[in-house]
Amino acid sequence: VMSQSILPTIMSGNNRHIVLFGRTGSGKTSIFDQLVGEDRLEAEVKVGVSNAKFNPIVGRCRLGHAGEVTVIDTAGLDDVNELGSEQAQRTRNIIRRADIALYVINIQEFDRDARAALQRADAWMRRNMVPYLQVFNRCDEAYAGDIAKLKLEFPDAIFISTHTPGSVSLLRTRLSQMVRALAEKENPLVPEKLIQKGDYVLMLVPDSGLIHEYEIMMELIRRGARCVIINEDDLEVTLQEVPRIDLVVAYARSFGKVRDIVPEDIPLTSYSLLYGLQGGVLEDFIEGAHAIGTLTKDSHVLIAVGDRKSEIYKEIGRIKIPRAMRRLIGEELQIDYSFGLDLPENLNQYDMVIHDTDARMSVRSVRAHVAICKEAGVPIANYGTILASLAGILDRCKQALLPEEQESE
Asked: How many Å is the maximal CA-CA distance in the chain?
């Protein structure tokens, strides 16, 4: 069970996550301490064991112009493996969610076994597309000639010692560069070709009037769009009053209501689909949503929820989606739930995973879950693509966001 006080920080998409991992004795905890100083968060993130030695520890670190990041120190890989597959899997899942991972190596113990472990880690990181940095630690205890040879062999690695003044500053500088490079490569929140300067965009908000997708609105405004924010109940009247509408952004839960009101020639999408596109997983989610057509009354579906207290889960994950799917497929359809950041290990027993993704979950967390499901051979969709499919407008929504792919099919 993960501490509720730390869960929003781990899930947050507001800052980058840097995860330290490596063998016991590599000195990664010393690096963690120097990066975060006293700015630790709660160190009670349970991973299923009672010994606090194996609980990830979380802290904040400011990296100059790159801003604040969340740093997570994990248990030693050999310690975790001794505890069994469940703890090892949870540690791997923490690493999968990292924006940047630091593989810390004790240069004094870099023998044949350590080299083999590094090669395995390198292959795993590349397979899971996790950006990572090899950090050779305790270099103050090593011969200069040995360090020089390793620098030639590992030109992208960094060589430091927590006992040498300025050494960790070098690591901070490299991390700052990596974080800024990630930002430059990231997909825009609003696709370049979706709107043009001067376009009119209708943004629908629920009856409560609360809009969590402030980032999307501000990005549209920065791009020169004219945003008209309305209550869902005013959609029909507004379509008649506004001279031109170039895009409608709705909440996916309203697709069944708005699909018949918004004319076919006006692009229609949802906030969750835009977030999926930014994360580079929308096509995976669309493909997963198509799997609804393969489900039978004997199928087994998992709804993965980040926060069981969220109103979206209570309304959509708990009621709207299960009710609509059982009406379509059969009341016998079995639906399970998982909560928190980790997916269950026995994913292969499910015919589909439906992922609760929102603006609070980091892009890396979402990508990690997609990678885990693909590795298990289980289709994965999010609330937005499932609701679009159930409303019969999945292809229409895809056309709005991925017109080039649609035309090539």
From this structure: 77
